[in-house]
């Protein structure tokens, strides 16, 4: 990723050992007809059908009796209203190995209220390789491991970190799956105004903040500086960008043929331990884009935010927005499966970014406007 950029003072973030990066836009998206659906195939050795979530809006309004959990920030109390949409296509590949999950209302999904605020949501993108077993298993079980962890909900980050490790170990001990298959795992847990993003692999989560792209995860590529240092310190090697000459990611769940006998913890070059970021959502935080590397291989974070914001301003539909991002990635000739989730924090579309004139002949533009124009203008080059 590109070099990190500072955050505005109102943006409250607890980082977990790494910096955030912002990438400028590359190409301009065009509004067009609905994305043509492609058949999603599965590898022959894994014929079980897996449903992909296409979630719709589930909003809590101030008039709802359960709308009583908030965090006071200064003079006002803000609570996001969650709605999401997703799209998954196999793209140019023969088989679809991605999985994803969208849960806009955790209270309803888990049928429990103890320890939960009125607002809770969970999302995940799992980019499988070597078959679908690992991605399917993690999609079905990761939330269970989180909510059943003793640290939940008091220490949410610890519970999520533990859940990744437990899910990986449980997958290895499951005799009904192919433990040599693997998956990356990107999850977003929204708990009141708190949002925790956990990532192991090269999927990415990007926050749209008034037109500005703020990356909430690092791509765990073997050649990245931090991952290369970690891998080599633990005795691993990197050949032509591949961990031990086999895998193009430095962190993943599954792939147990590469983890024995050291296991999947921090002592293994191929680690299932996620990096986490915690964000306190503000009113200027508009949406989050979660996508597999099939999207980010052909599109920068800023470009994706610019496209998503433009689409939401037109139709205010996160599902159509996710389809447009997938369509644009296919247009740019991505070589991988595609999965995109767009999570909005308001029932309203993003506001227009206006150029504010100054006294005299000078003119100025807000930082949000600069980032928006940057994504559009760079896309024309």
UniProtKB/TrEMBL annotation:
UniProt entry keywords in alphabetical sequence: Hydrolase, Magnesium, Manganese, Metal-binding, Protein phosphatase
Catalysed reactions listed for this entry: O-phospho-L-threonyl-[protein] + H2O = L-threonyl-[protein] + phosphate; O-phospho-L-seryl-[protein] + H2O = L-seryl-[protein] + phosphate
Top-rank taxon: Eukaryota
Pfam families referenced in this protein's UniProt entry, alphabetically: PP2C
E.C. designation(s): 3.1.3.16
One GO term describing the cellular component: nucleus
One GO MF term: protein serine/threonine phosphatase activity
KW Cell cycle (keyword) present: no
Keyword Amino-acid biosynthesis assigned: no
InterPro entries: PP2C, PP2C_BS, PPM-type-like_dom_sf, PPM-type_phosphatase-like_dom
PROSITE patterns named in the record: PPM_1, PPM_2
CC cofactor: Mn(2+); Mg(2+)
Any one Gene Ontology BP term: signal transduction
Domain PPM-type phosphatase: residue ranges: 83-345
Gene3D superfamilies the UniProt entry points to: PPM-type phosphatase domain
Regions crossing the membrane: none
Membership in a protein family: Belongs to the PP2C family.
PANTHER family associated with the record: PROTEIN PHOSPHATASE 2C (PTHR13832), PROTEIN-SERINE_THREONINE PHOSPHATASE (PTHR13832:SF841)
Name assigned to this protein: protein-serine/threonine phosphatase
Organism of provenance: Lactuca sativa (Garden lettuce)
């Amino acid at each position: 990723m590109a070099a990190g950029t500072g955050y505005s003072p109102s943006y409250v973030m607890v980082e977990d050992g790494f910096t955030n990066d912002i990438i400028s836009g590359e190409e301009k998206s065009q509004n067009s007809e609905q994305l043509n659906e492609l058949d999603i195939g599965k590898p022959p050795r894994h014929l079980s059908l897996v449903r992909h979530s296409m979630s719709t809006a589930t909003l809590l309004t101030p008039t709802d009796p359960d709308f009583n959990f908030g965090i006071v920030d200064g003079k006002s109390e803000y609570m996001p209203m969650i709605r999401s949409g997703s799209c998954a296509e196999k793209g140019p590949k023969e088989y679809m190995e991605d999985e994803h999950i969208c849960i806009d209302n955790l209270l309803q999904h888990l049928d429990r209220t103890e320890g939960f605020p009125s607002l809770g949501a969970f999302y995940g993108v799992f980019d499988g390789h070597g078959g679908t077993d690992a991605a399917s298993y993690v999609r079905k079980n990761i939330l269970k491991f989180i909510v059943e962890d003793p640290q939940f909900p008091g220490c949410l980050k610890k519970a999520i970190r533990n859940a990744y490790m437990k899910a990986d170990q449980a997958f290895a001990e499951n005799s009904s799956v192919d433990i040599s298959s693997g998956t990356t795992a990107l999850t977003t847990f929204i708990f009141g105004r708190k949002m925790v993003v956990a990532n192991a692999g090269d999927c990415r989560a990007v926050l749209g903040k008034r037109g500005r792209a703020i990356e909430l995860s690092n791509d765990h590529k073997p050649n990245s500086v931090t991952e290369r240092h970690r891998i080599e310190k633990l005795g691993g090697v990197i050949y032509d960008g591949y961990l031990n000459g086999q895998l193009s990611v430095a962190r993943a769940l599954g792939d147990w043929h590469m983890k024995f006998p050291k296991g999947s913890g921090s002592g293994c070059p191929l680690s299932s331990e996620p990096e986490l970021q915690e964000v306190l959502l503000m009113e200027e935080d508009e949406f989050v884009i979660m996508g597999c590397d099939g999207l980010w291989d052909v599109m920068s974070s800023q470009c994706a935010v610019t496209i998503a914001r433009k689409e939401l301003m037109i139709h205010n539909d996160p599902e159509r927005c996710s389809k447009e991002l997938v369509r644009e990635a296919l247009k740019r000739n991505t070589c991988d499966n595609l999965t995109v989730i767009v999570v909005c924090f308001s029932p309203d579309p993003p506001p227009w970014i206006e150029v504010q004139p100054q006294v005299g002949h000078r003119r100025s533009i807000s930082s949000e406007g600069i980032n928006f124009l940057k994504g559009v203008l760079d896309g024309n080059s």
